[in-house]
Design goal:
The protein is built from 32 helices and 29 strands.
């Protein structure tokens, strides 16, 4: 069946389905394609008319074809009048379409581009049979290509979702079914009216036309289709790659900003919690719980409030254990906030009050008992600025920061939602509603959706883990893909220009077939003349019928003079004798390939020769095609390869690593000199022998499993220790399987590096991790290790030990006066004097800030810490120079004792800490000892 009739059947089937769907109210039939816009009744009828026109040959004039052309022209023209004139001619039948197209202002009306597509098709059919019309062929071609252009552009926009991404044209106003109809109709008209033989109006004989006209017309059509298909394919690839890049970028941005926001919020929450854990606050509330009228405790609370408000907190309220307010400062914003988002820890809430505010309500506990409560509010200026910058990165960017409350996502005010929003978490079918829902459910990703404004956006989303929040970063698709939109315009213009230029070139260069044949022969001659090889053809009598120009440069022979001459006469008896047997094999029908070396025409040569027999359809050999390649360059390349192998051997012999290669029988096939230097086994002794016969049994036992894994195809890496020279050395061993072309393992390369220096560096880095960077003293990590060990030794030996806890009196004033640089100098001097005041066996550590501890082990009497405390007080009080200023500092010391009882590290630290505060209460610059346990007191 001809292609046009297959197309007619498809158009008739599609038209009937659309008409039946509209008349029967079956929207799926009217769509034809899943989730597409339903087609109108007029579109289905026009498809049926086009099917009738194509069923009979459209190149043959007939009354039926004329009526079909008239309908395809008149109906779309009337609809265009409705569009342009704003009138209703009653041809849309809106009552049938209103249920299927509820949002359309004109249900059932054909889209303007649909009208143009069918109008072009009708014009092509009508113009085809108007022989007296000027420029008829050009107008027919333009009409056919117009039909194709409308259908293909609409289908391309529908498939690539151009409207959703770029809002270039209203592609989706045309139904996908109509798009397919126009593409099929335009392709059929092109194949029949432009590519097929034209038929005269009055006779069935082909119209006289120049071959170049038909060839040009066909070539232009093919060129246009190829250009469109190539352009669509290229743009689709570019669009996909760009969308993936944009999506990945938004997802990465969302994930990164979510992590940064979560980290910052957690830090702010930890700052608030650190205030509630201050010992002074706990002690004051505990004292007020015992004695509500304690004036000193109230003074301490007021001093604490002043200190806290000085740390950028905007509001503070302190409650006693019964929930009664003891002290308030600042103005709390919780009740007046536009939006309040709980952060999931039960204590913290994120507010929006012209910026982000962290509201924290924290219990205050002492020794495990609740002694009061603390409310703090802190404006998060940095986070507010970061959120603002994220929301205003460009003209259409916005960011939502939300928390889940019940079944809603409650969001802070943003760029496009100034009052904040409550967004449903789930759709009616139970799926997450928008990207923010997915973020609050712990998902990370990117998605193209329409936001609450109905605008297509690309959104990246991620959860703020640990703070019960989700973040969405979104940008309008039209802005986001502006670059690719400009590239699409350039691509469209370029393709159009290429088609026009190609059409002009084809038209202007078409010549008679004879000239084309001559030109083809000249091109063939040119190609063969420029090949880097001798190309020739001889007949069955071995007379040259063709020889390319390379003969002149490679052999000195004139190719024109060779034509008609026999090979024996041209090459000479000696040279021909060397190839006679190969020539005979080619004449017998064999394809021959061989190399030839020696003297030819007075010069040394290296040639690769190939003879291909020329056969007639009956199989008889009537000649030989030959090609002779100069492979002297290849010989030079082989020599260079040998030289390269020598260089490689030099490298392997001199690298500071042990390199070996064994086959599947574990026999050494290669060892570099490092093998002998490290193992003491001569390379010559190892070569050809199995590993188990060369290496010591202990070494082989350690490596047997790894070498077996490598033989199974695994790349194996492991570390080992061996004693070489002056001591143990660390080695990193790599086994690399060697595979043949079929992928089978045929051997194993091994590379062994000495990593002893690296291991030593790692050990030093581990040591640095346990030392305070400012003072050079032990840090908290090392202190905790040594404290635990000291208590264990004390329990074993029975000799008492003591813990001294101290800080610098009024250190905050030093920082405020001299700055942090001055504070650092004081801390370093304090550490040096402290270290000089104790025994070498004692441990001195800096815990944090100006807090220092000393572990005193192996005490003979409990009086020794008293002597040492007075010594430290005197050493610290000595005047020091700090940034050009003379300064005297003092310290307060708290001491606790331990002699093997059931006390824990935490208990001893708490006793020392309490003794420290007793020393400060006594006026600072002194020390106090914690009461000893009954067990310790009874032994000393």
């Amino acid at each position: 069946m001809p292609f046009r009739r297959l197309a007619a059947l498809w158009l008739a089937g599609g038209g009937l389905c659309v008409a039946a769907g509209v008349l029967g109210g079956q929207i799926e039939l009217a769509r034809l394609f899943l989730n597409a816009v339903p087609a109108s009744l007029n579109a289905g009828l026009l498809s049926l008319v086009a099917a009738v026109a194509l069923w009979s040959d459209p190149r043959m004039p007939s009354r039926r074809l004329a009526w079909c052309a008239a309908l395809l022209i008149s109906v779309p023209a009337l609809v265009l009048v409705e569009h342009l004139g704003g009138v209703d001619l009653g041809i849309d039948i809106p009552a049938l379409h209103r249920a299927m197209q509820p949002t359309s202002p004109h249900p059932g009306r054909l889209a303007p581009n649909t009208c143009l597509g069918f109008l072009f098709a009708g014009l092509a059919l009508w113009l085809q049979h108007r022989p007296g019309l000027r420029w008829r062929s050009l107008l027919v071609s333009c009409s056919v290509y117009g039909t194709l252009a409308v259908g293909l552009s609409a289908l391309t926009g529908y498939v690539l979702d151009l409207e959703a991404m770029y809002r270039l044209l209203s592609f989706n106003s045309m139904s996908a079914a109509v798009m397919a109809m126009l593409v099929v109709l335009g392709t059929t008209l092109w194949s029949n009216l432009l590519v097929g033989d034209a038929i005269d109006d009055k006779a069935a004989d082909p119209v006289d036309e120049r071959p170049e006209d038909r060839i040009t017309r066909t070539a232009v059509g093919v060129l246009g289709i190829v250009a469109v298909v190539s352009g669509v394919a290229g743009f689709a690839l570019m669009q996909r790659a760009y969308k993936m890049t944009v999506a990945d970028g938004l997802e990465t941005a969302a994930r990164g900003h979510a992590g940064a926001f979560a980290h910052s919020l957690k830090q702010e929450m930890e700052i608030a919690e650190s205030v509630s854990r201050q010992l002074a606050l706990q002690r004051s509330l505990a004292q007020l719980g015992v004695k509500p009228t304690d004036a000193q405790a109230f003074d301490d609370l007021r001093e604490l409030a002043s200190s806290v408000l000085g740390q950028d907190f905007s509001a503070l309220r302190v409650e006693n254990g019964r929930g009664e307010s003891l002290l308030e400062a600042g103005s709390a914003r919780l009740r007046s906030a536009v939006v309040a988002l709980p952060l999931g820890d039960g204590h913290s809430t994120l507010l929006w009050d012209d910026g982000l505010v962290l509201h924290s309500e924290l219990p205050v506990e002492r020794n495990g008992d609740r002694v009061g409560g603390l409310m703090l509010e802190r404006r998060l200026g940095v986070l507010t600025g970061l959120l603002y910058d994220l929301q205003h990165r460009d003209d259409s960017t916005d960011a939502l920061l939300c928390a889940r409350i019940d079944e809603d996502a409650v969001c802070l005010p943003s760029r496009f939602y100034e009052a904040g929003r409550h967004i449903a978490m789930y759709q009616p079918d139970g799926q997450p509603f928008l990207p923010i829902s997915k973020a609050l459910l712990g998902m990370t990703g990117t998605e193209s959706v329409k936001d609450l404004r109905g605008v297509p956006v690309q959104a990246g989303y991620a959860p703020l883990r640990g703070v019960n929040l989700g973040l969405v970063v979104k940008t309008d698709s039209g802005e986001l893909f502006g670059y690719i939109r400009s590239r699409l315009r350039v691509l469209t213009g370029l393709l159009a220009a290429l088609v026009l230029v190609g059409a002009w070139l084809l038209r202007s260069h078409v010549l008679p077939l004879a000239q084309r044949l001559a030109r083809s022969e000249r091109r063939l001659q040119m190609v063969s003349d420029n090949l880097p090889a001798l190309v020739f053809h001889v007949d069955a009598e071995l007379r040259y019928q063709f020889a390319n120009a390379r003969y002149l440069s490679m052999t000195g022979l004139d190719p024109k003079a060779m034509l008609g001459e026999r090979m024996q006469d041209v090459l000479g008896a000696e040279a021909f004798g060397g190839i006679a047997e190969h020539i005979a094999a080619a004449l017998r029908g064999e394809r021959v390939r061989f190399e030839r070396h020696g003297q030819l025409f007075g010069r040394e040569h290296h040639h690769l020769v190939e003879y291909v027999p020329e056969r007639r359809p009956d199989g008889r050999v009537v000649g030989i095609y030959g090609m002779v390649l100069d492979i002297a360059e290849r010989h030079r390349a082989l020599a260079q390869l040998a030289e390269s192998e020598a260089r490689l051997r030099t490298i392997t012999d001199n690298v500071p690593a042990l390199i070996t290669y064994v086959d599947t029988d574990l026999r050494f096939q290669f060892c570099n000199p490092v093998f002998e230097a490290w193992t003491g086994i001569p390379v010559a002794t190892a070569m050809g022998r199995r590993m188990q016969d060369v290496l010591p049994p202990k070494v082989m036992a350690l490596r047997q499993r790894q070498i077996e894994r490598a033989l199974r195809g695994e790349t194996v890496q492991f570390e080992t220790v061996a004693v070489l020279g002056h001591g143990p050395r660390h080695f990193q061993v790599n086994y690399l399987p060697h595979r043949d072309e079929q992928g089978r393992v045929i051997g194993v390369y091994s590379l062994t590096n000495d990593v002893s220096a690296q291991k030593e560096l790692e050990r030093k880095l581990q040591t640095l991790a346990r030392v305070d960077a400012l003072t050079g003293l032990a840090n908290r990590r090392q202190f905790e290790e040594r404290f635990s060990e000291a208590m264990s030794r004390c329990r074993r030996s029975g000799r008492p030990m003591a813990l001294m806890f101290m800080d610098i009196d009024k250190f905050k004033g030093i920082n405020d006066t001299l700055g942090h640089a001055g504070g650092d100098e004081v801390l370093k001097t304090f550490g040096q004097r402290l270290l000089a005041s104790v025994r070498k066996t004692d441990t001195v550590a800096r815990l944090a800030g100006d807090e220092f501890v000393v572990i005193l082990e192996g005490l003979n009497t409990v009086d020794e810490p008293h002597f040492l405390a007075r010594k430290i007080l005197a050493a610290i009080a000595a005047e020091q120079q700090v940034l050009g200023h003379s300064l005297s500092v003092t310290t307060s010391i708290g001491i606790s004792f331990y002699e093997g009882d059931d006390s824990t590290e935490g208990a001893l630290m708490a006793l020392a800490d309490k003794a420290l505060y007793d020393a400060k209460a006594a006026g600072r610059g002194t020390y106090r000892c914690a009461p000893r346990s009954a067990l310790v007191a009874g032994r000393v």
